[in-house]
């Protein structure tokens, strides 16, 4: 590397063609509390500056027009282009918008969250630091009974007596925090001391993600089938970005989150007016749910089904 050559590179500073404003309105962070000890804070956005009269959506259009040509620059037609891009799954322009969040949540939520591997993450380290005396402790109304149809979830409230037993169990688990800190005071390494802590203890991280992959995260985690606790975080994230990229968020709701995807077999069932041509019990139930959402009449006969 020749530093002299690098130092001689001339950088041209090009003045802005129009007036810009801060999409975060000069704020250091936009923060929302989640549950007792959790929170989500939007700490940065790219672009941070947008032309006056526009929103950060402009960066999506700017990127798309590299491919599509200059075209029109009216805000109304920008909206049409963004909706066209989303509708036809031209995803790369949405990757030109990024958000960085500071998130505080229980470990059991973090372990679900981290499965979305399309973000940059830096998490609080319990090898270097002492974990906080903060635990997720649901109210009695939030204690759910195991779902019969969904093996990984809960839905209806659990009976009061069993719910109280569960909350007492959590009290006992949380009481182990004192043992954790006592052992650290006696010289136990933090990297070993942490392994006795429950997954209800709170952690935190910085999480940076582009808009395309954020919408994928939100579509899954805002869904009613997602666990309520992580759904609360996803709803909060959507609320934080909605005013910054309102056109893209509207397209997300219209074409993804509140849309219905139809399979080939489901389309054939609509055309024929007959039951869906499948012996898969789960697939048949999914179609039945969609049929009711669409307000379609019941078919005359139902096929025999076998387990999913």
TrEMBL record:
<feature type="region of interest" description="Disordered">
    <location>
        <begin position="278"/>
        <end position="308"/>
    </location>
</feature>
<feature type="compositionally biased region" description="Basic and acidic residues">
    <location>
        <begin position="280"/>
        <end position="292"/>
    </location>
</feature>
<dbReference type="GO" id="GO:0006231">
    <property type="term" value="P:dTMP biosynthetic process"/>
</dbReference>
<keyword id="KW-0545">Nucleotide biosynthesis</keyword>
<dbReference type="GO" id="GO:0004799">
    <property type="term" value="F:thymidylate synthase activity"/>
</dbReference>
<dbReference type="GO" id="GO:0050660">
    <property type="term" value="F:flavin adenine dinucleotide binding"/>
</dbReference>
<dbReference type="GO" id="GO:0070402">
    <property type="term" value="F:NADPH binding"/>
</dbReference>
<dbReference type="InterPro" id="IPR036098">
    <property type="entry name" value="Thymidylate_synthase_ThyX_sf"/>
</dbReference>
<protein>
    <recommendedName>
        <fullName>Thymidylate synthase</fullName>
    </recommendedName>
</protein>
<keyword id="KW-0489">Methyltransferase</keyword>
<keyword id="KW-0274">FAD</keyword>
<keyword id="KW-0285">Flavoprotein</keyword>
<dbReference type="InterPro" id="IPR003669">
    <property type="entry name" value="Thymidylate_synthase_ThyX"/>
</dbReference>
<dbReference type="GO" id="GO:0032259">
    <property type="term" value="P:methylation"/>
</dbReference>
<keyword id="KW-0521">NADP</keyword>
<keyword id="KW-0808">Transferase</keyword>
<dbReference type="Pfam" id="PF02511">
    <property type="entry name" value="Thy1"/>
</dbReference>
<dbReference type="GO" id="GO:0050797">
    <property type="term" value="F:thymidylate synthase (FAD) activity"/>
</dbReference>
């Amino acid at each position: 590397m020749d530093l002299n050559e690098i130092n001689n590179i001339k950088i041209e500073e090009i003045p802005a063609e129009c007036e810009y404003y801060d999409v975060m309105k000069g704020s250091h962070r936009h923060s929302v509390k989640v549950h007792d000890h959790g929170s989500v804070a939007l700490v940065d956005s790219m672009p941070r500056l947008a032309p006056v009269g526009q929103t950060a959506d402009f960066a999506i259009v700017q990127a798309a027009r590299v491919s599509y040509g200059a075209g029109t620059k009216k805000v109304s037609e920008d909206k049409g282009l963004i909706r066209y891009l989303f509708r036809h799954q031209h995803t790369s322009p949405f990757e030109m918008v990024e958000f960085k969040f500071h998130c505080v949540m229980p470990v059991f939520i973090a372990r679900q969250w981290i499965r979305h591997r399309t973000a940059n993450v830096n998490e609080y380290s319990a090898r270097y630091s002492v974990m906080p005396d903060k635990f997720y402790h649901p109210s009695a109304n939030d204690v759910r009974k195991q779902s019969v149809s969904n093996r990984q979830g809960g839905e209806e409230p659990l009976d009061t007596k069993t719910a109280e037993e569960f909350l007492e169990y959590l009290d006992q688990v949380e009481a182990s925090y004192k043992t954790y800190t006592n052992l650290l005071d006696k010289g136990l390494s933090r990297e070993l001391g942490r392994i006795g802590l429950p997954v209800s203890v709170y952690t935190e991280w910085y999480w940076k993600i582009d808009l395309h992959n954020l919408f994928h995260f939100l579509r899954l985690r805002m869904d009613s089938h997602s666990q309520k606790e992580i759904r609360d975080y996803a709803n909060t994230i959507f609320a934080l970005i909605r005013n910054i990229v309102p056109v893209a968020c509207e397209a997300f709701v219209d074409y993804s989150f509140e849309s219905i995807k139809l399979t080939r077999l489901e389309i054939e069932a609509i055309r024929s007016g007959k039951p869906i041509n499948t012996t898969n019990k789960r697939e048949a139930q999914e179609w039945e749910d969609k049929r009711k959402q669409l307000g379609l009449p019941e078919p005359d006969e139902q096929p025999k089904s076998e387990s999913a």
